[in-house]
Amino acid sequence: MRPEVQFWDKMLPDQPEHTHLYRGHALMHDLFETVCRSSGIRDPHDEFKIEQSDMFTVEEMASNPIAMRFLQFLIKVSGVRRVLEIGAFVGLSTMCFAKALPADGKVISIEKFDKFAAIARRNFELNGLAGKIDLRQGDAFEVIDRLPHDQMFDLVFIDGNKERYMDYAVKAEPLLSPSGIMVVDDCFYHGDVLNNAPTDAKGVGTRAFMDYAASSEGWLRIALPLSNGMFLMTRNKG
Questions:
Q1: What is the number of structural domains in the chain?
Q2: Would strands 230-235 and 176-185 be described as parallel, antiparallel, or unpaired?
């Protein structure tokens, strides 16, 4: 007999199975506010001094504050000391990583575009975090080639060119410590990855990574339906 409720009916907190007692009129707003209040998550504009780009706002381009708190949690409980970030934008995620790291921790962040890199550097200085961050401006593949391969990273965060997501993962994997965590942001790419055939180049690239991840049997992995999707993977042991 087919059950009336399926697992997918209970996957997200905004689905009817989880919201039938809600009496408000702005569910996602109220959910966001409740998560932030109970988790001690501050508005990034209150937590940091942020110089923004005149091209995109941090609300448009930066990772969601709840997603960043989740990664800060991972950094703390996993004892992460070194982070490699691919795609800094104006440095908000970079600063979140730096704040969660121990005093001797380090973020190596790569930003391709000089305009964003310049703003990010100023933001690091404004917030007193420049000492824990090493921003490398340039193409991620070239920058990674120049990194010492005897200095591993405990967390690799990929949020760069979506068309090259799988290539980034393959390129960065040798630099990931044996128990390290690889995180790929925006892994659903606005729903395009869910289509039988993605509709644009960024969707195609993100889908290629997801297909690669699906066949990565040597990894413990999970795609989380958080924000625009977040994929986490770490090597299976033993």
A1: 1
A2: antiparallel
Measured between alpha carbons, how far is 107 from 134 in angstroms, rounded to an integer?
A: 6
CATH of the domain at 98: 3.40.50.150
3-state DSSP assignment of residue 154 = strand
Can you give the residue range of the structural domain that contains 218? 44-235
pTM: 0.95
The one-character DSSP state at 173 is G
3-state secondary structure of 57: coil
For every residue of 184-238, DSSP letters joined together read EESTTGGGGGGSSS-SSHHHHHHHHHHHHHHT-TTEEEEEE-STT-EEEEEEPP-
Specify the DSSP class assigned to residue 42.
P
Q: Do the domain assignments include residue 9? A: no
Q: What is the phi/psi pair of residue 218, to 5°?
A: -80, 5
Residue 64 lies in a domain: yes
In a domain, residue 4? The reply is no
d(CA 131, CA 99): 11
Question: What's the pLDDT tens digit per position in 34-92?
Answer: 999 999 999 999 999 999 999 999 999 888 999 999 999 999 999 999 999 999 999 99
Dihedral angle computed from the Cα positions of residues 45, 48, 54 and 59, in that order, rounded to the nearest 10 degrees: -50
User: Longest Cα pair distance anywhere in the chain, in angstroms?
Assistant: 62
Those residues with Cβ within 8 angstroms of residue 21's Cβ, 6 or more apart along the chain or in another chain: none
**C-alpha torsion sign, points 70, 73, 79, 85:** positive
List, as own/partner pairs, every contact residues 212-220 make where C-beta atoms lie below 8 angstroms and the sequence separation is at least 24, other chains included: 212/166, 212/169, 212/170, 213/169, 213/184
Residue 132 resides in a domain: yes
